[in-house]
Amino acid sequence: MVANHFNMDNSENSKNKDVQANPTMEAVRQYIPLIKSHDSVIEISNGPELLEKGGVRVTILMEVSLPSRARAKKKSITDVQLHEPIILDFPKEFPWKAPTIKLRKDFNRSLPHINPGSKNDFVRPCIYDGNLDDLLHSGEGMNLILNQISDWLKKASSNTLIDVDQGWEPIRRDEVYGYTIYNKFALRKHIANKQGSIYLKGALHISNKRIIIGITSDIELKGPTWKEFREDSKKKNKTSKSGNTIVLLAWSDSNFKCDTYWPETVFSLKDLRSRADDYGCGTALNKSLKDITNGMGKHDYSLLIIMCARRPFDLINSDSPLEFIAYYAKHEKQKPEITLLPLGHLEECNAELLQRMSGVSRRPSKDIILQLGCGSLGSKISMHLARAGLGRYFLFDNKNFLPHNHARHSLVDFSNKAIPKATLLALHMNKMGIEATPVTSNIINCLDLLLPKGKCLDENTKIVIDSTASPSVQAKLISFPSLKMHGRLMHTSLYGEGKLGLIAIEGLWRKPRLDDLLVKLYDLCIERSDLAKILLDNNLNVGRYDIGQGCGSFTMIMPDSQLSIYAATMAEKARIIIENGAPESGELSIGLLDDKGLSVKWENILIGKTEIVNSTSRNGWQIRILSQANDQIIKEALESGKMETGGGLIGSVSWSNRTVNISRLIPPPSDSIHTGKSFVLGKKGLKEAVKIIQRKSGGTLTYVGTWHSHPAGGIPSDRDHKTLKEMASMRLGMPSVLLVYTPGKYYVLVDEGEFTIN
Amino acid sequence: MTAKITFFPVGTGDMTLISLNDKPKTSVLIDCNIREVADNPDDDACDVASELRNRLKKDGKGRLYVDAFLLSHPDKDHCSGLEKYFHLGAISEYDDEPPDGEEKKIIIYEIWSSPMVFRRASKNNLLTKNAKAFQKEVKRRIKKFRDSNNSATSAGDRVKILGEDIDGKTDDLGSILVKVNEVFSEVNNIDSGRIEMRLLGPLLKQEDEAEEDLLLKNRSSVIIQFSIASNSEKKDACKFLTGGDAEVAVWERLWEIHSDNPDYLEYDLLQAPHHCSWHSLSYDSWSEKDEPEVNDSAKKALSQTRDGAFIMSSSDPIKDDDNDPPCYGAKQEYSSIVDNADGKFFCTGEYPSTKKNKPFEFNITREGPQPPAKKSNSKLEAAGIAIGSKSFQHG
């Protein structure tokens, strides 16, 4: 900057001195030996020299790898010469910014991959797909840039800049004046077989930096009232302009194939008309332009023009040969000519775009995802899935987004209106082009209303994600008959201030069901003190924390980043189920945070089919025998042969769902008596065994009844009924289970007993 | 995709792939020399097996294949790795589940062989394991052809014998025999219209020559002038002349035969015979004779350049020393030939640098073969290697 300042008011003499002091010049000089030694560089033919506007110019002569006969002629049929002069214009910001590459002014401009520019400018090739500044800073940057130029010229000489194998290369719009955002699938639907044009509703936003953003909807305007699109009818805003506009879309006959690559040279209406003829849509475009001019009169107006070129084959990374080429057109009454500027295309955000960006296998948009609970965990999981372009969402949460939610929620509420979390989440998803419906009443009521009617739990439901941390919601979910429950239920929760994360996924036809999985989790605690310590310590789990004067919230305290460690895995689990389907068995995934708190180690436990036995006592109780207990019963019965055997049942009782889940057995005490016709359960050590289990499972599991085998088959005997009565009378009104195993069939008696007050 | 001719860096040896830009992307592989060093991941040698596999197509069952494989002559540096990488035998015996660590082999739809396979091994005709395996496979295919009453066989069994043998040994081969000076355009029974082969050799026994001289195997190399299209309009975009290890006597004789029709020997791209050996140009020894003389006729035969023609030496880097092949003197002769045509001389062992080689790929354009763009390798890497190979004293 100092050097520039001196340059302005100093004579030629001092210029040399400044050259020495110019930091850009210094930086470029350091690169000269590297440039000189590049295999393709014959010589540095000029420079480095300071440019008037700052920056430094170096001109090099590069040898191009021409085809043999072109080499003999010293130039190719595309007029690329054996020795091409290349200008490297280093900006003031060099070496942070890359040089601009320029070719001679008479370089063949009809080749692809050339930036738009006028005939009097140097030709600027697009030598690299990405950002040249970044290329400069990857590896040996200057070498890579020279390699790219060398390769570009080689391809230019044999006219192979477009790789036909990859598809048609759309017109380059890297250095455009702005973008138009549209859904190309929606736009394609308007393209009819016969040459034609339509008007679509659009919007324009011109920022103070003169960047134009045009938004093209697919809403067709039939017979537009031109008046409302006139500039003077819109509100004026000095810094930026926004407003509705018309989008003119024109296309050719279906048999008109445009197989020539036209570089961007359209800057006037005349250019546009001529290019429209090249694309085969000239007649349609001209007719519409005439209508617009008539309609707008002499008023100022601006609009978007999109021409559709039909290419001989599909565009790169596309399944369609239709290329849309967009322009911004502005008519000002003071100016004789309409201004035309090329606009790039940005795909409107939608599921397809998100899926492609996420690399997920293409999914139909019919998949339904139910997210129960849109708090910190729920919002993160479902936003992860939505960002992968997966699913349509029903978002359940009746709580409002409050200021303290910003600590861990995935969203920010700009409205400050304390809108429901579900609504906020749906708004975000809708913005991304993902269908989402918020359900903001009490979850339990909503589930009651929606589920039986099959409104959202229809056959397209892929997954129901419970992130409510609410036992009542879980109980409600458990209560749904498996036949009405489409999609897998996945329960997610965190324990112990983020020390443990749980993912519980139900099995096929809800065998195992969520309650089975949770009982299994507590059963694990009997042997696993590390889990018990976290899961069973109520102090660790949820506490009431002040979120304002007199206002509290029951929540878990942990940083957002830690919560995200779990949420990402939970979302991955869900994504895999949505993409690949769920396995037959149920699954418990337990994630434990390591000592340093930086990573979580997940262990996965597959859980087999739960055996379901309904009470023969006709009082509506259901006994659910977890697969490990079931296997154990079958094994013990088999080993005992013709003798009856049995033992104690350990499990958990749910009053609301009238269910007993059996997780394990207590082996028959040593004083038990086995005969061919009877089994007497002894009592030696039984009480102690039960106490240990109760203690280790934090009271979640207990002794709920007995089982015994009938090797020869047969329903529960009179003796069995009597025993149950006896047991029930001792159980203080808690239900008692008497389970009979016969080969191939279970019978179960449940007695609720009566509350007796001692 | 453009049609391509790829020279793999296989040291002083040959392995060249022609890929056409017809619909099925027809491929012709000329010789193969996959040495053990190239299979060693710890060695700097280019992993040519992977480079080759990456350029081949797969059939419906996921098996790689070449449409035709030409073995110019059965020397070690032209057929190494054949058994290891190519399926030899009936397709029905193909192993779709190779043992761990091995990859599925490449199927050869049609073999092009010289009639040398009919000769017995002798002290002058020592065959390596790969050469014997090749001979056995060609014989299997010929038998298959004869068993089917000389009618067309299917891909995987097809064979062409390039050139007649003495004593009428090849007389009953009918449609699978191609005679010297004939032009054929079918590759694996398909004429794509994108390639033509003019068979110029082998030039087998002359009347006054002894059998032993002939059996000096380099006389038996298949010599072909390929015409390769850049697209359906430009049919002879590239003339590619390749002749295995053919020596001076062969080229001298070829010039005698074709001096009236020099376009038979014309080329845009020549594979310097016998890895740039002096003996393809001269009867004298490069290292032993003080002023070894170039044979004018042989040089003429190898000078029928089109404008801008390239010559490629498929060899180790060529140094100014007594080595032969590759021979520095031969390189100078070839350089003078291409200089007269405004062309250029290349060497597989020097691309992109003598330290680290990559396959050298010519694109076939309407204006002839186009070499790769000139690029510089990482200079830091080269610098590291450079100082890494020297000890430095420090005081």
How would you describe what is shown here?
The complex is a heterodimer of chains A (about 750) and B (about 400). In chain A, about 30% of the residues lie in helices and about 25% in strands. Chain B is of the alpha/beta class and about 400 residues long. In chain B, about 20% of the residues lie in helices and about 25% in strands. The interface of A and B includes residues 71, 150 and 153 of A.
Write the layout of secondary structure elements.
The complex is a heterodimer of chains A (758) and B (395).
Chain A (H helix, E strand, L loop, with lengths): L1 H8 L2 H10 L1 H14 L4 E10 L5 E8 L4 H6 L9 E8 L9 E4 L28 H5 L4 H17 L20 E5 L1 H5 L7 E11 L5 E9 L20 E11 L17 H10 L3 H15 L4 E10 L11 E10 L7 E9 L3 H8 L9 E5 L3 H12 L4 E5 L24 H11 L4 E4 L3 H11 L7 E6 L4 H8 L9 E8 L4 E6 L8 H14 L1 H7 L2 H4 L1 E6 L2 E5 L4 H21 L5 E8 L6 E8 L3 E4 L7 E4 L1 H13 L6 E9 L4 E8 L6 E2 L4 E2 L5 H11 L5 E8 L8 H13 L5 E7 L2 E7 L7
Helix pairs in contact in A: 1-2, 8-9, 11-18, 13-14, 15-16
Chain B lengths: L2 E5 L8 E4 L7 E4 L1 E2 L2 H4 L8 H8 L1 E2 L5 E8 L4 H4 L2 H4 E2 L18 E8 L15 H19 L10 E5 L14 E2 L4 E2 L10 E7 L9 H5 L7 E6 L9 E5 L5 H11 L8 E5 L1 H4 L19 H6 L3 E9 L14 H13 L3 E4 L12 E6 L2 E3 L8 H10 L7
